[in-house]
Amino acid sequence: MSALWNMLYQKNHKLLPNGPDFVTPDATFLDQPKIQIIYHDVEEGIPPLSSAKELKYLETQVERARSMTPGKFSGNDRPDCFLKMTKNRLLSRPDSGKDVRHFEFDAVSSSIDYEVGGVLEVLPGQSPAALDAFIRRCSLNPESYITVQPRDAENHDFLNPPLSPVKLKSFIELTMDVASASPRRYFFEVMSYFATAEHEKERLQYFASPEGRDDLYQYNQKERRTVLEVLEDFPSVQMPFEWLVQLVPPLKTRAYSISSSHSAHPNQVHLTVSVVSWTTPYKRKRTGLCSAWLASLDPQQRVFIPAWFRKGSLPPPRPSLPLILIGPGTGCAPFHGFVEERALQSKTVSTAPIIFFFGCRSNNDDFLYRDFWLSHSQKNGVLSEDKGGGFYVAFSRDQPQKVYVQHKMREQSMKIWSLLTQGAAVYVAGSANKMPSDVFSVFEEIVSTESGVSREAALRWIRTLEKAGKYHVEAWS
Q1: Is residue 23 very low, low, confident or very high in pLDDT (cuts 50, 70, 90)?
Q2: Distance of alpha carbon 365 from the chain centroid
Q3: Do residues 363 and 398 make contact, with C-beta atoms less than 8 angstroms apart?
Q4: pTM score
């Protein structure tokens, strides 16, 4: 602001007749938080219910807590269902450096329905120890009941009907990401107003300034420091809960491609998940909140997981549609469901062929669902060459030169072109790095080579395929 006043004064003295220093440099201003918290007597909250109504109680808690934070969450706050894990199986070799899991869940609160190619959104659980540490650090009463609403009285559309109280600890657990996400710059600025130790105040003001931007990036984003870690690094700061509710990053659902066919597994849903882990520049071990939490669950435990079903970007194909599938790594997840479904359909109707290109590092380390793919590629299976299909694997690290799915596609150039001329649809799933664009480029090359047209004409042909809804990509970072 000081720089702005100076610039305006230089442009036109009449704009600031009292000079650019009409506000003292040391003056500080902090607006009120945009939300207010109302505390309620315990009896106003919902008392613990009988075990028969436990799921309904959980559903109400999730919906109430997440509906109190307008603007942070989109869509329906009420979960479509609650899931209970029934299987947690390691797919990769234990000492391979990768941790890829197959999870199976039963729907326990209501019947479920989804199509292959769909997406499951999961609300992750947070570490009880981290939640307790956050509550202690912020001097909060976990047993109190609260409602959260906008401070602006005019902004109360979402309060109709009026919100019911929810326990403070439940609100934090279900809506505030206290031990995974990093806070934004404004969090440090607001913290500076509540720091009582002078050296902490100066450090926070520096982080919030344009001059401190690079150091803040090194301290915060690059290290992926969590809200709890930041608060513990500045012990003199005691932020009001209203500011914490407003500024702590929201606890977001995580989306995963469904890897099962509902027809093959009624009232179940399966996921294929790579557990995210990395080391920061200062050698801190970090893991993905949801993937690590799911991997830690014991199917014998009674943990109910809030979940939502969404349509993905891979529409379910009809049985008569030939398919060209490319899914390296966990990109194979949706196609596991595709193959399950087509295998079931083939028992009652005539089905079109499928060719699937899978890629991984090594035959021994991370050949996900090896037995499943191989069984369906033999004895008239839906991936068998007898049925006009095929299953091709690229092991990138099993030989001196790296081999990717693109190389295997080139080897099957004639087969791919043959299926394309029969009206096949292309589905690509996996990492959003270079893979989707590299695969697209190989398709251009194949169309150009096999049909004898220029690359430009081949590109136009594939764009026509996209417009016809026959080239689909689902990629994630």
Answers
A1: low
A2: 25
A3: yes
A4: 0.89
Distance separating alpha carbons of residues 21 and 5, to the nearest angstrom: 8
CA angle, 79 as apex, 161 and 472 as ends, to 5°? Answer: 125
Token output for 343: 């295998």
Q: pLDDT tens across 145-183, in order?
A: 999 988 875 555 555 556 789 999 999 999 999 999 999
Pairwise CA distance, residues 305 & 85, whole Å: 8
In the prediction, which pLDDT does 361 show?
93
Q: Smallest Cα–Cα separation from 425: which of 467, 378, 381?
A: 467
Other C-beta atoms lying within 10 Å of the C-beta of residue 187: 23
| Amino acid making up residue 20 | P
CB–CB of 124/251 below 8 Å? Answer: yes
Contacts of 144 (CB under 8 A, 6+ apart): 39, 40, 42, 167, 168
The DSSP line for 279-325 is E-TT--EEE-HHHHHHHH--TTS---EEEEEE--SSPPPPTTS-EEE
Q: What is the pLDDT of residues 105-121, one digit of tens each?
A: 999 977 899 999 999 99
The stretch 222-251 carries a mean pLDDT of: 96
In the three-class reduction of DSSP (H, G, I as helix; E, B as strand; rest coil), residue 402 is classed as coil
Kind and range of the H or E run holding 359: strand 354-360
Distances (CA, A) of 59 to 267, 305, 417, 434: 19, 10, 50, 40
Closest CA to 309 of 117, 80, 108, 85: 80
The reported pLDDT for the residue numbered 162 is: 63
Please name the amino acid found at residue 283.
Answer: K
